[in-house]
Amino acid sequence: MGRDAILKAIQKNKPSLIPLPEINLDAFEEPIDLLETFKEKVALVGGRIIALDAIKNIDSEIQKLYPNASKIISCIKESNLGTISISEKTNPHELEAVDLAIINGEFGVAENGAVWISEDNFPIRVLPFISNDLVIILNKEKLCSNLHEAYKLISERNRTFGLFISGPSKTADIEQCLVIGAQGAMSLTIILV
Amino acid sequence: MSHSKKAAIFNKDEAKVNWHDKALWYVREKRDNAAHGVKGWEYLRDTASKIKGNVLSNLDNYLIEFEANAIKNNIKVHWASNAEEHNKIVHKILEEHNAKNVVKSKSMLTEECHLNPFLEAKGIEVVDTDLGEYIVQIAEETPSHIVLPAIHKTKEEVDELFQEHLGTNPSNGNPEYLTNEARKHLLNKFIEADGAITGVNFAIAETGGIVVCTNEGNADMGAHLAPVHIACMGIEKIIPKEADLGVFLRLLARSATGQPITTYSSHFNKPAEGTEIHIVIVDNGRTEQLSREDFRSSLHCIRCGACMNTCPIYRRSGGHSYDATIPGPIGSILSPGKDLKKHSSLPFASTLCGSCSNVCPVKINIHEQLYKWRQIIVKEESQPVVKKSILKITGKVLGNRTLYNLVGKSARFMLKYAPRFMVYSKLNTWGKARELPEVKNENFDTWYKINRKNNG
Ligand code: SF4
């Protein structure tokens, strides 16, 4: 059987134990402006970032950005734009023609413009990928500087499915020309409130 | 056919070679910019290397821990000693789900195991959904680079392929149009799929979860739409703790393409209601590599491709010249371990300049391992004449530590300031179709200055 043979071969061939290094996180600390760095990196990775004064304005803002979206799934209670409602029971294949999804993000990472989103923020896993466009609502206070900090923030989560998402889907597979909009969402807008 | 013979074929189309060379060097420069933007970058590399060192020294226990935690989370775990076992396991899972249409995201392991032809022979359609892999699949080729699979294709070639396979209109190779056509076609494939296969970037012992990184979103589209997700991983993909991802994800995309992180870094810990996740853990020669003290650290590799982008030989010879699943400097260490006879020319496809080792995010001493393979190969295999004379020089130099250090330094200096002269001298077959003859009316200095301006 593969398992025993592999484990035996490893035991025989591995070197003697090398300890795990202690990681000194101070080595990565920089005095950065979290919000400004985050905004800069979101733009760098092809995302759009908009800061709103009040959450009550999100619907008009989203309508301005996506005037043609008609099949909309909203997973946030502050928006009334949703035209399709989904639950854990929805067949993911029914989401094929969704124009726009609006979801909450949990926190942003300044060093790379990524936002952590998880199954808690959307009932069907494929939603943020299959939707033509994606809007993430993010509390502007919820930013951390780098991924080391980020993993501390998610260390206690209920582990099911979650991801760091950084900008819209993209590819450079044809002669290294960057094209925004590959198999996942064509655009990503982060609305900071 | 040896690497140099294949490289000579690649070098026939000089314009294309020049483009290939420059395109990859540009990616290397983007990597430099991204790396310089991170405080503590060298410490980060050092830490990554040490974590991987620990992983290899405790790999059996980490795998057992990983398996136990994955099973607790309802993930099914399989073990395969070799490619054949791997393919059979994947097929069996698909058969149990009666799956006939499979979508696959990038996985060098499944390339290594030749999974596609195996499944196709059993009547299962496999569609590669990474755009670059899709292009090489319809061209009936293999990836020529581990991160940029279709880097050897011009946009005009892609245009023609798409006209033939997707019925697109001629577009002079318009990347937006072609990408969008592929998007539409692949969306149908995702919707139809009854099975999804992905690779694994990292598998976390502490949690039993896996992380899959893509820019296109294709792994997630496949995995979340199909009723069964099969993730295939080599035994060396294990990392001890989830917090270690902080180290590796900071390094991976920056080293690969100069992005601060890939668009999607998806953490799979439990299957969604009504679906299954299977993980296939594969050896296929890795435990043997683990036994070779000199080459062991090649298993640190996180498949970023940086050593390819920076390698003067890779850039001028193309990935297919290596005739191996993993081309370039790291492939030239891994492949001889699998089949020394077939891949005996690969460790010679290097100037030993050390650029690969300098950029490697997990600090593999790639060029030193290449040299070590040369010593073994010279003892065991007969060498073609040109190689022998190169070898004599390198052998003499490397046999003497002081001399090696001296020459190493000057070689690095030369590569930085006079790459064409160094790399394309007459002895090197990779530079056969070079413009060296044009030098004859100028002295080297003038020629070099002009060419350096023109060729960056
Ligand atoms: S050997 Fe290092 S540089 Fe090359 S692909 Fe692997 S991790 Fe990247």
TrEMBL record, chain A:
Spans through the membrane: none
Coiled coil: none
Gene3D superfamilies registered for this protein in UniProt: NagB/RpiA/CoA transferase-like
Every LUD domain range: 48-193
UniProt cross-references to InterPro entries, sorted A to Z: FTHF_cligase-like_sf, LUD_dom, NagB/RpiA_transferase-like
Top-rank lineage group of the source organism: Bacteria
Name of this chain's protein: LUD domain-containing protein
TrEMBL record, chain B:
Positions in coiled-coil regions: none
Keywords noted in UniProt: 4Fe-4S, Electron transport, Iron, Iron-sulfur, Metal-binding, Repeat, Transport
PROSITE patterns in the cross-refs: 4FE4S_FER_1, 4FE4S_FER_2
InterPro entries: 4Fe4S_Fe-S-bd, 4Fe4S_Fe_S_CS, FTHF_cligase-like_sf, Helical_ferredxn, LUD_dom, LutB/LldF, NagB/RpiA_transferase-like
Keyword Metal-binding: yes
One BP term from GO: lactate metabolic process
Superkingdom, taxonomy of origin: Bacteria
Ranges of residues in domain 4Fe-4S ferredoxin-type: 291-312
GO MF: 4 iron, 4 sulfur cluster binding; metal ion binding
Protein name, as recorded: Lactate utilization protein
UniProt organism field: Gramella jeungdoensis
